[in-house]
Amino acid sequence: MANPFLLPISYLYKLGVTFRHRLFDWGILKQEKFEVPVICIGNITVGGTGKTPMAEMVIAYMSQRHRIALISRGYGRKTKGYIEVRADAHYRQVGDEPLQIKRKFPDTVVVVCERRVEGIRRLLQEHPDVDLIIMDDGFQHRYVEPKVNVVMIDATRPVQHDRMLPAGSLRDTLDQLHRANYFIVTKCPENMAPIDRRILRKVLIQAAYQRVYFTRFESFRPQPLFPEEVDLDLNYGQEVIALSGVGNPGPFVDGLKGSYRVVEDVCLDDHHVYKVKDINLLDGLLKAHPQAVVIMTEKDAVKLIHPEKIPAEVRRRLYYLPINISFIDDSETDFLQKLENDVREN
């Protein structure tokens, strides 16, 4: 139940969000549409809904036919303005998620810029061969008018029962869902009932052209962060320390519990900035559990890739868990092909 003292603040926040949307609807605040199609991957809630794995999926598929660039605000960075991300950059300069994507797709142009319109203009000037742009977390950034809006929905936090910030996790109003072309419902349970799908479709779909896809996260075998230093085998049922600095760590931790014995659960804030005290904490926990290893999210892994700041005994026991989005009912091909058709209609 929401804190009743936060409800008035939530109401004021909702009024502010609604008024801002009206300014765009009335044309007082201007949108810009680009000749190069823009796919926006966003959500209407705070916390992890799977935007980054979805962006990675779209990049992997679309890069077969297009020269792709990704633009992000670069949340959590200590810099300002336009920066093109290099694979050897520090996450404090470019943000954790853009760095993760650049390291996975080194041939993809990745830029960060809080002013997305200006960022896209410069991106196209410096990379005129780019013919498709993915805008990360831009559903509320209405200064850019995308060709396609993909909105991520967390099945574990139904939007119809949620409240606006700060009483809930909604950062946008439900009436804005009409702007979405596709809804990707993530973190669906294995045995999701057909009636639950029908209810979500009824809540989400507000126009005939909108489509809803149901997905879950699929984990792979944990990978060592420093493979050249690892001398411990990772076995089923082994003791592990879960480390996560993401918006909704529950599914990550629950997934680990299905294969390992989680002896410690270190949950940090989303976009957490790692400091010496965090490394010391891990060092202490590993000494307390001599047979354990640390398994972290991919988002946390890009923040700990500088070995000189981590003791050797800790480095050899650090792993990260790669994940991707798995579509239910083998609907992934249908989604990606329809997305490609939308882009080609430009």
UniProtKB/TrEMBL annotation:
Catalytic EC class: transferase
Catalytic reactions of this protein: a lipid A disaccharide + ATP = a lipid IVA + ADP + H(+)
HAMAP family: LpxK
InterPro entries, per database record: LpxK (IPR003758), P-loop_NTPase (IPR027417)
One Pfam family it belongs to: LpxK
GO biological process terms, semicolon-separated: lipid A biosynthetic process; lipopolysaccharide core region biosynthetic process
Record's protein name: Tetraacyldisaccharide 4'-kinase
